[in-house]
Structures are given as structure tokens and as C-alpha cells.
């Protein structure tokens, strides 16, 4: 007997890759076979990723090619979603406590689950979004339903997996992303990158999408369609963000989406407001601009660890070289999206084995360090959107005992992005006190 769990649960499978015996068993369990393409308004679409197939190259779908080539004449098997996860009365062993405002949001999430209404959670960076979803997850699991917790970012998924596994030790949980070696299983909780959702159809009772405004999800039509199609018709989706995109806020205004707002960090202290520094000369003036150098020297004297954010990799590398020349004793690392050792390096910083981490927007979110000064170099670069700057500033002050970590923005032009980011942080702090 084959382990059918490797196939079940609303998976979209390429029929030609399956052996006939398995196909027979899957069909008996209620799976269906569909053509790999469908026509709409005289155009051809891929049944897996729902993207249009370009006529010039119309023999296969290019959009989801990296998940295995699907030819237009192929057939797909959509596996049955009838899964039995058994019954758990109290699936959650997490015994942390939620603050009053977290509890309020947590209740709203459970209400949305029972009313099957899609819901947006706008919670400031460091509000404890993940923990707030735990009572919801518990409710979903004890109802015997299936949930996917997704993020566009692999790092976020990898960090989520042990936390959720610890909180729900008796529940089957799978972690799936492009680089994972764990084979697919029809688990009750699925933690995955949003890309993985392309492989599912009406598979989940509940879908939670974290960091909904972040790359590569924001503005990606294929991923937006994947989110829609992977949830069952009778089911609901939660969107989590500290910086929600305006499309979702418009849906809230139109009454299509519920909303919970959380302006307060879990420790009750305000968000650190960035200190803005206008530079009269470029960052690389005299190798390292004296004003920046002065700040770094002070951090070294205080033995304070820090993060330096750069708009791009070449600038980061150049600065790294100069910094190392000027301060040879400083232990530092640099990480970017192109770095295969990224996760290991971040771990070194987390364990206090290096004092400084130089990075790009890759670490703007999803990472939590205690006691860290955050510095943005060339904050006026186009790579730093308002959202990026808010997220980066949100890396500071995340621990209760160092809630007032400093944030510094260095720039030559005080542009609209910097202005809006600072204004929004101020506004959120005002709301935390007054709303
Ligand atoms: Zn496709």
C-alpha cells in the first residue's frame, strides 16, 4: 500500500508523473482529473497557476514552470480534500499570556472564523502577531479543520515552524518551501511560502497570510490567484501586516474585509522613532562619512551591537571593506538575498558572536533581535520605500528590557518616503496611547 498522504489534500498533480495504481486509489477517494488548460474569452489559461499561456510559446505554461513543466495537452489530478485529522479537545500547549489588546484581537479572529469572513490584522511591528493567532489555530484544529500559515518569505516560514510545532505538539505540521527537503504530506497545519499555494486547489479551511505586503507577494498576480484558489469555498483568509497595502484597506472600507488593529507592541512600550540625520556629503566621503563614522565609533565604545541597512549589495560590500579597514577589531558579517549562508550568519548575530550585521532590505522583516541599534544608510534611496523604512525601524526595541533601542536614518535628501515613514510611526504611537 502506498502512502497516499503524500498526494492527498487538494494537491494539483501532473497525471503523467503518477503511477496508475496510485491514480486508481486517489480517484476512489474522490480526486478528480482535469485538463491542464482551460479557455476563457478565447485565451488559454493554465489550470494549475491560473495564468494565461502565451500564444507565441503556447505548448507549455511558463508561469509555473519551476514547479514542473505542464504541457497544454497534459492532464492534472486534483487530489481529494477529504481528510480525517481525528479529534483533539485541547490541541494547544502554549501557555504564554496575551496582553489585553492582543486578547481582544484574538477574539475577533475567532469570530471571523465562525462567521467565515476574511479578515485583516494590522498590527505594528513587534505586536506579537503570531501568538495572537494561536487561540485561532487551536479553535481550527479542535474543529478538525485544516489550516495553512503562509508567508512570501522563506526565512519567516522557517522561523514559524518550531514555534507552531512547540505550541501544537500533537498536530501534524508540515513545512514546505522551494528549498525544503521535507516531502509533502497532507498535514493538518501547513507552513509554506505563498509560492507553494500554486500547487493546491480548495485545500484549506483557513488560510493565514503573513507579511502580505512584502516581496514577492505584493503585486504578483499569480500569487494572489494562488491565495484565492487554495482556500475552500466555505472557508476564510486572514491577512497579517504591520504595513498593509492600500488595496486591502480599500476592501475594508468597502465592507469586504474585517479588520483588527493593534497599535501596541506586546511589551506595551512605543515604537522607537527614527532619528534623522542629514548628510552634507555622500556616505563614502573620506571613505566613510565622518558623521556616520562618529556614530559607529560611539557604538563600538559602548559595546553596543548594531544593524546597518544598505539600499543594495555593491554599496554594502564597499562599506564593509572600508569599515573593516577602519575598525579592524570589529567583528561583523554581511548578508543579502544572494547569500546561501544567510540563515547561519543571522544565527551568529543572534548569538552575539558578532557585533555588527550589514544587510539589505532582505532583513527588513521577519527577524527579531534583542538590544540592537538600527541604522539605515542612504535612507533616501529608491530601494527604501515608506513600508521598508517602517519595517526596518521595527527591528529595534522588540524586547521588553531594551524597548528604547535607537534607530538612525542617514540621507542627503529628506524625501517623501522618509517623511511618511516617520509620520506613520509617530501616528501609530499616538494611536497606541489615545485610541
Ligand atoms: Zn501554470
Automatic annotation (TrEMBL):
Keywords: ATP-binding, DNA-binding, Helicase, Hydrolase, Nucleotide-binding. InterPro entries: Helicase/UvrB_N, Helicase_ATP-bd, Helicase_C-like, P-loop_NTPase. SUPFAM superfamilies: P-loop containing nucleoside triphosphate hydrolases. Residues 291-435 form the Helicase C-terminal domain. Residues 110-262 form the Helicase ATP-binding domain. GO terms for molecular function: helicase activity. It holds the Pfam family ResIII. It comes from the Bacteria. This is DEAD/DEAH box helicase.
Amino acid at each position: 500500500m502506498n502512502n497516499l498522504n503524500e498526494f492527498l489534500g487538494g494537491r494539483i498533480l501532473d497525471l503523467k508523473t503518477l503511477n496508475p495504481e496510485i491514480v486508481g486509489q486517489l480517484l476512489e477517494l474522490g480526486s478528480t482529473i482535469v485538463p491542464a488548460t482551460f479557455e476563457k474569452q478565447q485565451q488559454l489559461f493554465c489550470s494549475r497557476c491560473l495564468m494565461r499561456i502565451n500564444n507565441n510559446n503556447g505548448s507549455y505554461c511558463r508561469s509555473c514552470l519551476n514547479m514542473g513543466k505542464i504541457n497544454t495537452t497534459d492532464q492534472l489530478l486534483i487530489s481529494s480534500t477529504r481528510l480525517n485529522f481525528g479529534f483533539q479537545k485541547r490541541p494547544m500547549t502554549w501557555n504564554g499570556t496575551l496582553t489585553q489588546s492582543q486578547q481582544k484581537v484574538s477574539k475577533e479572529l475567532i469570530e471571523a472564523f465562525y462567521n467565515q469572513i476574511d479578515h485583516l490584522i494590522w498590527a505594528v511591528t513587534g505586536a506579537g502577531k503570531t501568538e495572537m493567532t494561536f487561540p485561532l489555530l487551536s479553535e481550527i484544529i479542535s474543529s478538525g479543520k485544516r489550516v495553512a500559515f503562509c508567508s512570501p518569505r522563506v526565512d519567516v516560514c522557517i522561523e514559524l515552524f518550531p514555534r507552531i510545532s512547540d505550541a501544537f505538539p500533537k498536530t501534524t505540521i508540515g513545512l514546505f518551501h522551494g528549498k525544503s527537503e521535507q516531502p509533502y504530506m497532507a498535514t493538518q497545519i501547513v507552513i509554506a511560502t505563498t509560492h507553494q499555494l500554486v500547487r493546491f486547489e480548495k485545500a484549506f479551511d483557513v488560510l493565514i497570510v503573513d507579511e502580505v505586503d512584502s516581496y514577492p507577494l505584493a503585486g504578483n498576480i499569480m500569487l494572489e490567484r494562488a491565495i484565492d484558489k487554495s482556500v475552500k469555498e466555505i472557508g476564510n483568509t486572514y491577512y497579517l501586516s504591520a504595513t498593509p497595502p492600500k488595496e486591502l484597506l480599500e476592501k475594508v472600507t468597502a465592507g469586504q474585509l474585517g479588520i483588527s488593529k493593534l497599535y501596541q507592541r506586546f511589551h506595551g512600550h512605543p515604537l522607537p522613532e527614527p532619528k534623522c540625520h542629514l548628510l552634507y556629503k555622500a556616505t563614502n566621503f573620506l571613505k566613510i562619512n565622518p558623521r556616520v563614522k562618529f556614530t559607529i565609533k560611539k557604538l563600538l565604545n559602548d559595546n553596543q551591537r548594531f544593524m546597518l541597512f544598505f539600499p543594495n549589495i555593491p554599496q554594502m560590500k564597499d562599506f564593509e571593506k572600508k569599515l573593516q579597514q577602519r575598525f579592524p577589531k570589529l567583528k561583523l558579517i554581511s548578508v543579502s538575498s544572494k547569500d546561501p549562508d544567510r540563515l547561519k550568519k543571522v544565527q551568529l548575530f543572534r548569538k552575539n558572536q558578532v557585533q555588527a550585521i550589514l544587510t539589505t532590505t532582505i532583513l527588513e522583516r521577519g527577524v527579531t533581535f534583542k538590544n540592537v541599534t538600527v541604522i539605515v544608510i542612504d535612507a533616501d534611496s529608491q530601494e527604501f520605500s515608506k513600508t521598508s523604512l517602517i519595517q526596518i525601524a521595527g527591528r529595534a526595541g522588540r524586547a521588553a528590557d531594551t524597548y528604547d533601542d535607537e534607530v538612525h536614518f542617514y540621507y542627503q535628501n529628506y524625501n517623501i518616503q522618509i517623511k511618511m515613514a516617520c509620520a506613520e510611526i509617530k501616528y501609530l504611537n499616538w494611536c497606541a496611547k489615545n485610541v
